[in-house]
Amino acid sequence: MVFKRPARASSGAAKRAKLDPVERACSLVLEGISESNSVPKVVQRMLGDMVEASLGAPVDERHKFQASVVAMIREVLKGAEAGMQEEVAKVAELFAVAEGATVKNDSAIREADKDVAAQEAKACSAKVALASDAKAVKATAQAITEAEESQAAGEETLQGAQTKRAKLASA
User: Fold this and answer.
1) Annotated region Disordered: where (predicted)?
2) Measured between alpha carbons, how far is residue 145 from residues 46, 149, 159, 162 in Å?
């Protein structure tokens, strides 16, 4: 008994058919026409419909109407190119402005960093001064406490001496 081979699950990715170079060029021209903002959509559609018929024919075999369509397409594409160049110039100008702002902001950041470092140094010296002042206050408070204790002891001694004097004076 002979077994049949099982069918393959999938044959892999489908191969793309090669486009004719003329068709590829026509599709690029269609794309360029559709990106053009220099003419209305109706004109874009009209020229798009005539691209293959006019550009697909060899130059020496073109009818005068096909040649005029090619000239119109050329003008539309030149207008699209000019529009794109204007856009590029605007973007380049905006980029230059942004680059200048970046340089300005970078210098401002460096200045701010210097100010922060100076303020941190001041804060550090103020902390050191505060710590020494706190030690001085603590020492002064301790001296005051000791002086008050000494005064209280002196007052007790004085009170005892006055009591003894009063006893001696009455005797």
Assistant:
1) 147-171
2) 104, 6, 21, 25
For 70, other C-beta atoms within 10 Å of its C-beta total 19
Cα–Cα distance, 74 to 79 (Å, whole number): 9
CA distance 55 to 29: 9
DSSP state of 70: H
Q: Ramachandran region of residue 12, left (φ > 0), alpha (ψ -120 to 50) or beta?
A: left
pLDDT at position 35 is 86
What is the DSSP-derived secondary structure letter of residue 58? Answer: -
The residue among 54, 53, 49, 57 whose CA lies nearest residue 33 is: 49
**Please, which residues have CB within 8 angstroms of residue 53's CB and are 6 or more apart in sequence?**
66, 69
